[in-house]
Amino acid sequence: MSKTQINISILEEWKDELENLARIYSVEEEKTLTYLDLMRRAIQEKYELTNDE
Which domain of life is it from (predicted)? Predict the structure, then answer.
């Protein structure tokens, strides 16, 4: 499975909130997560995409 990069713009307030959520999830899951990881996860769950890596 190949990967592709996309560029998006989000509100700075959204980014700040996602970064805060990523910190919380990182502690809960005992692994480092970024706001980009949360965005990927949300897209994957919303559209029921598989991750066959």
Answer: Bacteria
C-alpha–C-alpha distance, residues 24 and 33, integer Å: 9
- CA distances 18 to 10, 29, 31, Å, are 11, 16, 16
DSSP for 1-53 reads -----------HHHHHHHHHHHHHHHHHHTS---HHHHHHHHHHHHTT-----
pLDDT digits (tens, 9 = 90+) for 36-52: 999 999 999 999 999 77
Do the Cβ atoms of 42 and 49 come closer than 8 Å?
Answer: no
pLDDT category at 53 given cuts 50, 70, 90 is: low
Structure tokens at 37: 């990881």
